[in-house]
From TrEMBL, chain A:
Organism (species): Marivibrio halodurans
Stretches assigned to the ABC transporter domain: 8-267, 323-571
Gene3D superfamilies, sorted: P-loop containing nucleotide triphosphate hydrolases (3.40.50.300)
A GO-annotated cellular component: plasma membrane
Protein's name in the database: ABC transporter ATP-binding protein
UniProtKB/TrEMBL annotation, chain B:
ABC transmembrane type-1 domain boundaries: 101-317
Membrane topology, as annotated: Multi-pass membrane protein
Cellular compartment(s): Cell membrane
Pfam families: BPD_transp_1, BPD_transp_1_N
Gene Ontology CC: plasma membrane
Sorted UniProt keywords: Cell membrane, Membrane, Transmembrane, Transmembrane helix, Transport
Gene3D superfamilies assigned to the protein according to its UniProt record, in alphabetical order: MetI-like
Transmembrane segment boundaries: 9-29, 101-128, 140-161, 190-210, 247-274, 294-317
Protein name: ABC transporter permease
Keyword Protein transport: no
Length: 635, 332
């Protein structure tokens, strides 16, 4: 074991709280060989990030190492030098500061907040050089520029002078990586480096880390909750749960021969592309929805309804936003330059009882679409027609009481279960508020119905008088679902309902939504950036890019036979939790995947080419130039 | 950037115009005018009033004219730099204000400097050593400063200085030197007197500023970019100075615009108590006797100072914060 770059031995870390000490890490041991890649996997609260912080010596004030060793053998000190015990070093002493950022570096999850907005990229990266290597200002600038070029900045010299807020999320994370690697550390700790990024950017960043690792000969400690990432980058895997190591082994063993029940459960909880039809995810903590009265609540269409009529017909929705300059005397220089088309002619139909998945990267306009359907934003043009099977209603022209009445039919589930519940309302108030607004039932009836809803989402009715803060993220999301169901809607719009949740909870919520949809006969629009999740819940999938629908198809057809280059790039970039099907890092689409001008013919979109949705197979629409002998089946 | 400054300067024109209307209306609100006050006062003292003088004033300043016309005359004068004529002092407002405005500016700027010099290190200390004994002690003293009325503090200081040192600290200049031409001796004398009003006027502002800086800095200290810098190996002191402190400065600078008028108007009562030859007591007197042009010009000067102060603080913010400088579009 002497050859290890880093060896963590029986590490214990406690947090001092008002009422005693909480042990967040309880005897963790693992090692990182020189040049190797180790993944530290666990859900939030498992203590994995605390371990990373202790290796960096940047634990929060309330935390302290209560026992164990973190032995770091710096290859730069020569082969026979004794290892340094980081756990015993004073946190802000010279020795620790020399290691921190110089020999061991870290990159964080949030590229948006990890860089100081007041200093240029060049300044912040150069600072690391200055601290650990020294040199003249020109030398530092040269080194920084070289590093920025290595991490893929198109114009490194210019990048030196840019501020973080001028960059996209992907470029910020690249700048962060440049900052971590500019001193050529022996170990890079990547703490959820791609969690906040879109899937195509994630693949690029993973490739970048891998390439630089080979080039600089450093080891990587990857901290993540994403088993797909683990399967693609790690050589060894350490699985943590509640501050302890559950299982530890080589990647193949971990995925093919999991031993510990927790790891087995974790693997079963992740949506995969190769799931058999009808196969269900198994949540780690399964919930038991009270199904007794489910069928009684089923939405029944009125007499003589045409079951083939779409519930919602969305026609050519368009919305552009004007980015306003500050000051009321601002000149309207060039209005076109400050208009952003967020949604551009989006059309689709929601069929009764189906779940349509809407997929796209951040900023593609999928949330704007949902807000327009909910009448939270007024579209510039286009139409939304609701049909109960007999009569049609133009949703966009509804006003006053008719709009209020219509709102009962369509409800929304939000992404963030923490900010979408009022912390000053009890669960009972939250769940019955929609009934209150629409004046449904007496208080006693509402309370009875609230109890029923709690059963529906598998929550204890005794919790009705509690406040949201006493619930976990998954429980809160279930409260949000109960609230959305209170008005017995026909249509449910779910905007990234599981992206803020841990893997195990994710499976629980997905199963719940699936069951409820079937039992209550709901029609669902499921918005997500996660293709595997959409694959699990949706019947049909629509793919959006830059405000336009580029492809729409039944679920199986889309995954079997993606036609549009953007869909293909998206599918290629998803890391699967299966080491036998690794990402093809050499054929990543790169940043141009989402540039409509760079798509090959017949998909190109620019001033000269204006493709439209064309039906290429039964129910399979692709945005492309019209084919010869087309029947004009644009949806 | 030049574009931005030009735009801001343009916006100042309507702002100041609206303020001037408001000022004029408010001054005219009490019944009567200065001449009526004067006549009543003189008659109560049994003196005869020269009808010719009154008629002359009425004619000269159009006091009999409708209010909008009076305003127009005054405003037109202001534009030409003519602040009008003080009835009470019987000389042009500019001459009345003259010296006093410089003393006011001296007191105000010393006070602002005092506030910044004292509150800055204390605020930083309080934030970095949150909940330490020092933090609690300084916070406690700060709250006492915030809660004590300024004039009371002035009285206490005057009493103590008299009692212990046997000196009079009222005024800004020793009576013997009041009419003397400006000299080194006079300057030193002014500086000797200056500390009392500066402390008295500055305490409340200092306490408020400490609280704000502490709160700002505490917010920033736990941000991710601070951790990033720590992970880079930046030494603690340099880290504090370069990253969170710089961010915490923003509200500090944004406050300059508010601080100026607050100090000048808040100092009026203290100036009366300490008999300082600043503009505060004069404004008070002018408002009482309805010496409308004197009061009006004063208030306009205050308004101008506020508007300019705000512009300066905005420019300083833009210089310090690239997010403001480079536009809000990118700052998402």
């Amino acid at each position: 074991m002497t050859g290890n770059l880093l060896e963590v031995r029986d590490l214990r870390i406690g947090f001092t709280l008002d009422h005693g000490t909480l042990e967040a890490v309880r005897g963790v041991s693992f090692r990182v060989p020189p040049g190797g890649t180790v993944a530290l996997v666990g859900e939030s609260g498992s203590g994995k990030s605390v371990v990373a912080q202790s290796i960096m010596g940047i634990l929060p004030k309330a935390a302290r190492v209560m026992g164990g060793h973190i032995l770091f053998r710096d290859p730069g000190n020569g082969p026979d030098a004794p290892p340094v015990d980081i756990a015993a070093l004073p946190r802000d002493g010279t020795a620790m500061r020399g290691i921190r950022g110089g020999r061991i570096s870290i990159i964080f999850q949030e590229p948006m907040t990890s860089l100081s907005p007041l200093h240029t990229i060049g300044n912040q990266i150069g600072e690391a050089v200055e601290l650990h290597r020294g040199g003249s200002a020109a030398e530092i600038a040269a080194l920084t520029r070289e590093m920025l070029g290595m991490v893929g900045f198109p114009d490194p010299a210019r990048a030196l002078r840019t501020y973080p807020f001028e960059l996209s999320g992907g470029l910020r994370q690249r700048a962060m990586i440049a900052m971590a690697l500019v001193c050529h550390p022996a170990l890079l700790i990547a703490d959820e480096p791609t969690t906040a990024l879109d899937v195509t950017i994630q693949a690029q960043i993973l490739k970048l880390i891998r390439d630089l690792q080979a080039e600089l000969g450093m080891a990587v400690l990857m901290i993540t909750h994403d088993l797909g990432v683990v399967a693609n980058v790690a050589e060894e895997v350490v699985v943590m749960y509640h501050g302890r190591v559950m299982e530890h082994g080589r990647r193949a063993d971990i995925f093919h021969d999991p031993r510990h029940p927790y790891l087995k459960a974790l693997l079963r909880a992740v949506p995969r592309f190769d799931m058999k039809p009808g196969e269900r995810l198994v949540p780690i903590r399964a919930i038991e929805p009270d199904a007794t009265r489910l069928t009684a609540r089923r939405v029944t269409p009125p007499e003589g309804a045409d079951p083939n009529r779409p519930v919602l017909d969305v026609r050519a929705l368009t919305k552009s936003f004007t980015i306003r300059k500050r000051g009321f005397l601002a000149r309207a220089d060039d209005p076109a330059a400050h208009r952003v088309v967020a949604v551009d002619g989006v059309s689709f139909q929601l069929r009764r009882g189906e779940c349509l998945g809407l997929v796209g990267e951040s900023g593609c306009g999928k949330t704007t679409v949902s807000k327009m359907l909910m009448r939270a934003i007024r579209p510039d043009s286009g139409g939304v027609v609701y049909s109960d099977g007999v009569t049609d209603t133009d949703v966009l022209t509804l006003e006053g009481d008719r709009l209020k009445a219509f709102r009962r039919t369509m409800q929304f589930i939000f992404q963030d279960p923490f900010s979408s519940l009022d912390p000053r309302m009890t669960v009972l108030d939250i769940v019955t508020e929609p009934l209150d607004i629409h004046g449904i039932g007496s208080p006693a009836e509402r309370k009875a119905f609230a109890k029923e809803l709690m059963g529906l989402v598998g929550l204890d009715v005794r919790h009705l008088n509690r406040y949201p803060h006493s619930f976990s993220g998954g429980q809160r999301q279930r409260i949000g679902i109960a609230r959305a169901l209170a008005l017995r809607p026909e249509i449910l719009i779910c905007d990234e309902p599981v992206s803020a949740l841990d893997v195990s909870i994710q499976a629980q919520i997905l199963n719940l939504l699936k069951d409820l949809q079937r039992a209550l006969g709901l029609t669902t629009l499921f918005i997500s950036h996660n293709l595997a999740v959409v694959d699990y819940v949706a019947d049909r999938i629509a793919v959006m890019c830059r405000g336009r629908l580029v492809e729409m198809a039944p679920r199986a057809a889309l995954f079997r036979e993606p036609r549009h280059p953007y869909t293909q790039a998206l599918l290629r970039a998803v890391p699967e939790p299966n080491p036998d099907r690794p990402l093809d890092f050499d054929h990543l689409a790169g940043a141009r995947a989402s540039d409509p001008g760079a798509w090959p013919a017949p998909f190109t979109e620019d001033d000269a080419h204006l493709p439209r949705l064309v039906e290429v197979a039964d129910g399979h629409f692709v945005r492309r130039a019209p084919m010869i002998r087309t029947e004009g089946t644009a949806a | 950037m030049i574009d931005y400054i030009a735009r801001r300067l343009l916006v100042m024109i309507p702002t100041l115009f609206i303020i001037s209307v408001l000022v004029f209306v408010i001054i005219q609100l009490p019944p009567g005018d200065y001449l009526e006050t004067l006549v009543a006062e003189l008659q109560s003292q049994g003196e005869a009033v020269s009808q010719e003088r009154i008629a002359f004033y009425r004619q000269e300043y159009g006091l009999g004219e409708p209010i909008w016309k009076q305003f127009a005359v005054w405003f037109w004068g202001l534009l030409q730099g003519n602040m009008g004529y003080s009835f009470e002092y019987e000389m042009p407002v500019a001459d009345v204000v003259g010296d006093r405005i410089w003393l006011t500016i001296l007191v105000s700027f010393s006070t602002i400097l005092f506030i910044y010099l004292v509150s800055f290190p204390i605020g930083v200390y309080s934030a970095v050593r949150q909940y330490s004994l020092g933090d609690y002690t300084l916070t406690f003293i700060g709250f006492i400063g915030l809660a004590t009325p300024n004039f009371l503090l002035a009285l206490i200081l005057m009493y103590l200085a008299n009692q212990w040192f046997g000196i009079s600290i009222g005024g800004l200049v020793d009576p013997a030197l009041r009419d003397a031409p400006f000299s080194l001796e006079k300057l030193l004398d002014i500086l000797g007197h200056l500390w009392v009003p500066v402390i008295v006027i500055g305490t409340a502002g200092t306490a408020g500023m400490i609280r704000r800086l502490r709160a700002n800095l505490l917010d920033e200290l736990h941000k991710q970019y601070v951790t990033t810098a720590r992970a880079k190996g930046v030494p603690p002191r340099k880290l504090l100075m370069k990253y969170p402190l710089r961010m915490a400065l923003n509200p500090f600078i944004a406050d300059i615009g508010n601080l100026l008028p607050e100090i000048i108007s808040g100092a009026a009562i203290v100036s009366v108590v300490l008999s300082l030859e600043t503009t505060g007591p004069m404004l008070l007197g002018a408002l009482q006797s309805q010496d409308m042009y004197l009061a009006g010009s004063f208030l306009m000067a205050l308004a101008l100072l506020t508007v300019v102060g705000n512009l300066l603080s905005d420019l300083a913010l833009a210089a310090l914060d690239p997010r403001i400088r480079l536009g809000a579009e990118a700052a998402r």
